[in-house]
Amino acid sequence: MGMPAPRLLRGENYLLALYPKRQASEPALEQFPNGDFACACGTLIYDAVLGTPAAAGFYRDYSRRSAPRDRAIGHYAVIMRKDGETAIIPDGFGAYLIFYDAAQRIASSSFLAVASALDRVTLGAQGACEYVFNGVVSGDATVFDEVLLAPVNATITVGERRLEIRRDPLHTPRTVSTAPFEATVERSMQILDQYFSTVVASFGDRVTCALSGGYDSRFILALLRRHGINPRVYVYGPPGDKDVCLARDIAEGEGFALEIVDKDRQLTFTPDEFGAVAYENFLASDGYTWSGIFTNGAERDQRASRVSGNALALNGGGGEIWRNFFYLPDRSYSPREILWSFYSQFDPGTCTSAFDQQAYFRELEEKLEAAIGSPCASLPRPLVEWLYHYFRCRAWDGRINNINNTYGYVALPFLEPRVTEHASVIPIGWKNHGAYEAELIRRADPRLAAYPSGYGHDFSGPPPLLRRLVDYGTYLRPPWLRRFVYRVKNRVLRPSELPDYLSSEYCDAVLPGGVRIMSDLFRLDRIADPAQTARILTLEYLIRQFDGRIHIDFDHKSLAGQRKCAA
């Protein structure tokens, strides 16, 4: 993968390999005279310090009864030896993912590291379908049945014969806050001010962030400016793109530099050259990401660029928690209704008879139940908001967060437990039409709020009537109907010309003989969505990388039985 050489620590019953970030020469490791040690992986800020001092501070305050997660920010895993115990303590949100094998002998922040150490792996229908349909595998699973994720709020200890995984219960909100609007806004700003003041103390102006036409990137920039930080700002897109035009207008109006990057045109390769590019993408993406590996590799360069100079790259992932992300009216919902609303991005007509739609939804319902910690036939609205962060965002943003963290320091300010607990109980009526987040942007930086957005209005006042009417077109669409939207679009659009790197010329260079295995589950000739095509090709490539030790099981009943045994 191109990582620097690791530091190896050997214990009585374990071997630990600590890899530095790509721009570093040593891991953030503190070793003590008594043989104890502490190492911080990912991005840990503790008592306003990071790296080795942060790991040492976490070690100092840690006890078996209590991990000092409430004094830390960022997404990380602290690995330490203390009081005769060796443990891995991930962050409280769980966005720095820890993978482990079903036999509980290997743990890593890399999916490929665990999978590559196993004698046999299994690709099942559920993992394959979730990845192709949604871009991620949800819950504590991956595309391989034998590679699992440590649950949220887990602690992993080295036992005598295997890793012991303990999950502390999570608080799940059930009732809406009754605090007044002004008090709630002030509390929101207080939580975020505490976070960004820590960023100032730790990084100063060594911060990069995106700027587009949406809410979340504008909010990140507003909070940085509120705290006196002058970040390096970039926007992705081709000339004339709406995001590029809006970001350029803001940068020119406020007098700061803007880096415009057109990733689609940044690098070009011939089919003969693309085999090496795909392999580099495969390694850099730790096997698979939402966009797949059939790209020009420009994102690899951007990951390194965003953290160059030991900078902190901020990402607005999860910022929709300040809005009505699901575009659902204010009421309770069944788990199946949530899945119909947001996990129905597929057309059964693009699948073979191996796909069982009901089994697919049942598996996801079981994952929702596991995330909550108990059966829940009716989900109160605050719990729906909570699940947006802990179920959807953890899977979506956590996967990329691990990859980005191999390059340097990365942070997701809106995916912090304090934010989730507070924002989940804010009344939905305040969040509708983006009004609450717009108010927060205005409080943070009125000048930035006054610029136009990609929504056709600025954020300096209440959303206009047209915006409200457009939103109600979605609000009033019931969940049972939403599950059909994607399949209608797929059948109306029908397959069109694919992007260059998904064309047969490039695919044949990378996958000689074409798609042989994934065609047992998907009918590529019926798929109109290039993103799903890219993921199917990525899985086919992944299968070939594990040739000789991969088992294909596209029987949903068999898969469910295997997972119950593993649990």
Put simply, the count of helices is 22
Mean pLDDT across residues: 94
Question: Biggest β-sheet: count, sense, barrel?
Answer: 6 strands, antiparallel
User: What ranges have pLDDT less than 50 throughout 5 or more consecutive residues?
Assistant: 558-567
Terminus-to-terminus distance: 31 Å
The computed structural class is alpha/beta
Instruction: Compute the CA-based radius of gyration.
Output: 23 Å
- Biggest sheet: strands side by side, in what order? 3-4-8-9-14-15
Q: What's the overall geometry?
A: globular
Q: Residue share in helices?
A: 40-55%
Strand content: 5-15%
Count the E strands: 21
What does it look like?
This protein is an alpha/beta fold. About 40% of the residues lie in helices and about 15% in strands. A 6-stranded antiparallel beta sheet has the order 3-4-8-9-14-15, with helices on one face. It has a 5-stranded parallel beta sheet with strand order 18-17-16-19-20. The chain has a 3-stranded antiparallel beta sheet with strand order 6-5-7, with helices on both faces. Strand 5 (about 45) and strand 6 (about 50) form a beta hairpin. Helix 3 runs antiparallel to helix 21 and helix 5 (about 215-225) runs parallel beside helix 15 (about 435-445). The longest helix is centred in the C-terminal third of the chain and has 25 residues, at about 380-405. The model is unreliable at about 560-565 (pLDDT under 50).
